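To: structure subgroup
Subject: Chain for Friday's discussion

All,

I'm putting the inputs and outputs inline so they're searchable in the archive.
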Amino acid sequence: GYKFSGTESQMQAQIEAESRQTVAIGENSIGHSYRAKYRIERGGIFGISVWIPDGYTVTEVKGEGIADWKENEEEKADEETGYRHYLDITLKTKVTGGYEFEVRIEKPLKGLERVVGIEGAVARYVKKETGYIAVAQEAGLRIKTGKMENLREVAVSDLTGGERGIISLAYRYIKVPWVLEVETEEVLPVVTAEAFHLVTIGE
């Protein structure tokens, strides 16, 4: 049967997390990539646990030496994040020093929402988590910052790697939880036409 052995080791080790959350807003869904880099001190870990926002489903988990992963739910909401849903990742061997992984999650939408509330994944059992949020949108949409808490808007050029070319908004957070709302607007395609007239003059 499934047994997650990482919780106890995570609580004993001292972990700091630096994460990058890339959010893609579409008319029918929100796609979300959570990439985290752990710095592990005072021991090692056999597994990882991550809070997942309500309404999202885990679609993919990437990392070296992953044995298994499973979504679970607490009976009561977490006091800090308000989340109940979480992901447990079991590693094949004990990890010390550092570890990087990625979790992809997705949430369906019934249609384009004028104001989209963006919620992030949050590392469990870590001493501190900081990171960046990058927000992209499908073609035909325009987005701008609405409400935000515990965030600072930064230039898209501050982000390194990943899907920088399609990113419209970027933020830095130094504590969790954070709050972000993005306002959306449909943009009609602009059609342009160029005319070329060839005139020949005979003798």
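Points worth raising on Friday:
The two ends are 93 Å apart (CA to CA).
Residues 76 and 187 are 41 Å apart (CA to CA).

D.
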